[in-house]
Structures are given as C-alpha cells and as structure tokens.
Design a protein that fits this description.
Layout lengths: L26 E8 L3 E8 L4 E5 L4 E8 L1 E6 L2 E6 L3 E4 L5 E5 L3 E8 L1
Antiparallel strand pairs: 1-2, 2-9, 3-8, 4-7, 4-9, 5-6, 5-8
Length: about 110
C-alpha cells in the first residue's frame, strides 16, 4: 500500500477513467492526495453539471481524462478536451462546466 497516494491500487497498471465513474446528474470526486503542499483528486461531471466559481490556494492543473469541459478562468472561457490540460494560477477565479460528460485529474500544488 502506498503511504502518500490513497484510494488507488499500487503496483498495478491503472486506467484512471475506471477509477472515477460518471454518474447521472452528479459531480463525483475521489481524493488521492491531500497534503499541506499538494492535492490530487479525480473528478467526474455528467453533461451539463458544473462546479461554480471558486479560487484555489495553489496552482491547479486540470488534465481531462475523457469528454469536453468549458473552464472559465479569470473571466475567459477555455475549451478543454480529452488528453488536454489547463494550468490555473493560484488565486485565479475559475469554474467548470461539462459540455459533455467528462473525467479529470486535478493536481493542486501550493
């Protein structure tokens, strides 16, 4: 068992999309790391679900595992698709909207 990354099986090849299901009409999260200087969380959002505007205390990197999201960052919209990432600087207001159902890995470094 890993001492730092939780809720995943060590010493096994993983498909992160299988680790975070897309549930109808829901936003789902699965925390992998929550330490003072780093956080890693898997998220899934069904189509038309959203995460309202907020700010992170560290730099946040979103990596889309599947689907398509519209991320509003500092008032500017970014279209992010499977295999793409967006870096959101600490303190910048941002919100996410599921153009299609999507899954993502969020890494926050403080």
């Amino acid at each position: 068992m890993s001492d730092f990354i939780k809720n995943l099986t060590a010493k096994k090849v993983l498909d992160l999309k299988k680790e975070i299901p897309i549930n109808s009409h829901l936003v789902v999260s699965k925390t992998l790391v929550q330490q003072p200087h780093v956080g890693m969380t898997l998220f899934s959002l069904d189509k038309d679900e959203s995460i309202s505007a907020h700010k992170a205390t560290g730099d946040a990197l979103v990596y889309l595992l599947s689907g398509h999201a519209r991320i509003t960052l500092d008032g500017e919209d970014f279209n992010v698709s499977e295999g793409e990432s967006l870096l959101m600087p600490a303190g910048a207001p941002h919100a996410l909207y599921a153009e299609t159902a999507f899954q993502m890995l969020l890494v926050v470094v403080k």
